[in-house]
Each structure stands twice: as C-alpha cells, then as structure tokens.
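Notes from the 1:1 (GR / supervisor)

We went over the backlog. Supervisor wanted to see one worked example end to end before approving the batch request, so GR pasted a single chain during the call. The sequence is below; no edits were made to it. Supervisor asked that the structure be written out right there so they could see what the output format looks like.
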Amino acid sequence: MILLSLKKSLKVLILEVIEFAKEDFHKKSYFFVALLLSTLLIANYKFGLYPNWIRSSYYTGASWWVMPLFYLTIYFIAAVPTLLFRKEFSTLKNPNFYLKSGFFVALYGIAVGFFKYSDFSFANLTIQEAYFVKQVISQLKCSVFFLLPLFLMKLTIDKQVNGFYGIARNPKHLNAYFTLFLVMIPFLVLTSFTKDFLSAYPQFRPWYFDKIFGMKTWEYTLIYEISYAIDFIMTELIFRGTLVVGVMLLMGRSAILPMVVFYCSIHFGKPVLEAVSSIFGGYILGALAYQTRHIWGGIMVHICVALTMEVMGFWHYYFKNP
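Structure output shown during the call:
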C-alpha cells in the first residue's frame, strides 16, 4: 500500500515535468543551454572561474558589485540567445524583460555580495561567539535584502503574480514533493561518503565552538540550522519564485532555462557533483513551479535535502571521532 502511494505520488510530479518539457522543448535553445552549461562548468572546475577570480572579490571589498555583475552576465548570456533561438522577438524588445529579470538577479547578487558584516566588531563577545554571530548573519542577510523590495514589487508592479511570488495558498501536490525527497535519501546518503562532500559538509561545525553564550551544543547548532533553512527559503523565492512565477508573465516557459543556468552558477563554490545535480534539480523545480504556480514544494525539498546533508556531515564526523 505504501509502495503504491509512493509510485502514485512520484507519477504525479513526473507527469507535470514531462508535460512541461514536451511543451517547452526547443532543439536549438536546449542545445545552446547544454553547451553553455558545459563551458561554464569546465571554466569553473578546470580553470578556476569562481575560486580564482570571483571569490577573491569578497576579500578586496568589491563583491557588492562583482557578484551582481557576474550573475547578470550569466543570466543574460543564457536568456537572450534562448529567446533569439525561439524567435520571441517581442520579449527581446520589451524593456520590462530586462528591467524586471535584471532587478531580481541583481538583488540576489547584491545580497550574496554583501560582506561588510565580516568587519562588524563585537567587543563584548568572545572570538568564537563573534564568529558564530557572523555565520548566522551570513545566512539571514538575503532575508534582509529580499523581503522589503519584493513586497513593494508585489504591491505595485506584480499584483497579478500568484501569491507572494509562488508562496501561495492551497499548493498542489505537496505530498508528492515529500515523496520525492524520500526517494532522494538513499542517493544523499551515498553521496555523503565522497571526498568532496566530506570537505564541504556539514556547513556548520559545532565542534569549533565551546559553550558559546552559555548554551548547549544542540542549542546553538539548532539556531544556525534554522537560519540555514531560512536562507534556502530565500533561494527558492528568487529562483523559482521571482525568476519563474514572477517572470513567466513576460517570458512564459522561456523563463526556465536562463534560471537553470543562473542557478547552476551559484553552486560554483560547491563540489562539482552538486553543481551538476543543481542543473537537473533547478530544471525540475522550475518546471513544477511553472506548472503549479507555487514554490512550496521546492522549499520543502530544498530544506529537507540541505538538512539531510548537514545530518550526514554530523554523522560522519561524530562516527569517525567518537
């Protein structure tokens, strides 16, 4: 009975993605995006695009403009040719396409590029406590940058957009999304044994802290992981919310492929397997956001996957270091 329910739930999501892909598939644009992604992955993991050229901007103080410029370049290098191949000239001639999508992309880049908090002084805190506070700020900063501008956009320009950019009532297929996560668990567990995974996870390492703020280990770990989960909500809000549910009014289905390329690029500081899997995950979640007009499923899957990776990182550390 449970197996039947799992199969039925997965079938619902698979059919939604297949329906989207059938309607959206365009040979030239899909080939172009595949070639672009391959080129970017090689440029990053063989020639160090992000680690050697982009990441250094955080330490020179230039990240506040380098990151939005980098992401805008990535997005429009994908979006403009895709629209050209599809002969969607009306969209290309529409200034709202550049202004709206560019605003969302730049907003994300500015938020990610904000690194001034690293200079904040916490004179009354220990070194460990100050470092912990900065780690939490790094996870919550996108909320500070996103919510007010997007709220104003929703009240003025985007009144027709469903919910708050896909954070809507009565979401479809929510149980099926949870089933999708359950199916992913064995793959996440297997991936956790790779060298790249172990060098990157867990993102928060409580063993570097010792009774900060007089709290127990599980207490400050929980605070960080909650802030970590909130950051994933913001990620879904931008990528599947604004850049799919919000931009589809201008671009229709053509909004998905540029979002996928952009989404892959934000993983360039992660292991290569994670960057590659983000292409497929981004496409599937983008297609589902388009089909269902909400992002709750993406939020659920994203947070569940992220926290599972954290748990596996904890398990490997404490199991090997009892």
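Supervisor's comment: Residues 42 and 303 are 28 Å apart (CA to CA).
Batch request approved.
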